[in-house]
Design brief:
138 residues, mainly alpha, two-stranded antiparallel sheet, 2 strands, elongated, binds iron/sulfur cluster
């Protein structure tokens, strides 16, 4: 489907987001934490390094690298902070990108169609929402 606002798509999104996450348990998935890294922006770095009791420079040196866009991302994949039980060890202070992912309750879902399509290959909730939108509005 052509992913764009209109035909009431944006009004359907909140319910489809809720529906998707009624059926999908992130703790049984962790696909995002295993497959892609959030960006660690300056406020994220400040908050997380403080939470871990590390100097920012030590936190960066220990856990992060710069990607080709110049953003800090985790060195490892799966994410270093993902536990065996799929819990995030820094959940309360996790990066903003982790809080917002997978954008199924956000305008970003339509604003960045290429990212949304890519996310549908990683995140079953994005796939679900796209399929339902296709069924409902074509
Ligand atoms: S910081 Fe936590 S929520 Fe974010 S990718 Fe890593 S394990 Fe997942
Ligand atoms: S990929 Fe989607 S469903 Fe899986 S853990 Fe991440 S947000 Fe949850």
């Amino acid at each position: 489907m052509q992913l764009k606002k209109g035909k009431g798509a944006e009004r359907l999104l909140p319910d489809l987001h809720d529906e998707a996450f009624e059926q999908i348990d992130c703790l049984k998935c962790a696909g995002c934490c295993k497959g892609i890294s959030p960006r660690f922006k300056t406020p994220d770095i400040k908050r997380i390094s403080k939470g871990l009791g590390l100097k920012e420079s030590v936190f960066i040196e220990s856990y992060l690298r710069l990607d080709s866009d110049g953003d800090y991302v985790v060195k490892g994949s799966p994410c270093t902070f993902l536990g065996e039980d799929n819990m995030c060890s820094i959940y309360d202070i996790r990066p903003g990108d982790c809080r917002n992912y997978p954008y199924t309750d956000s305008d970003e879902f339509f604003k960045r169609p290429n990212t949304t399509y890519l996310n549908s290959t990683i995140c079953p909730a994005v796939y679900y929402v796209l399929e339902k939108l296709r069924e409902k509005i074509g």
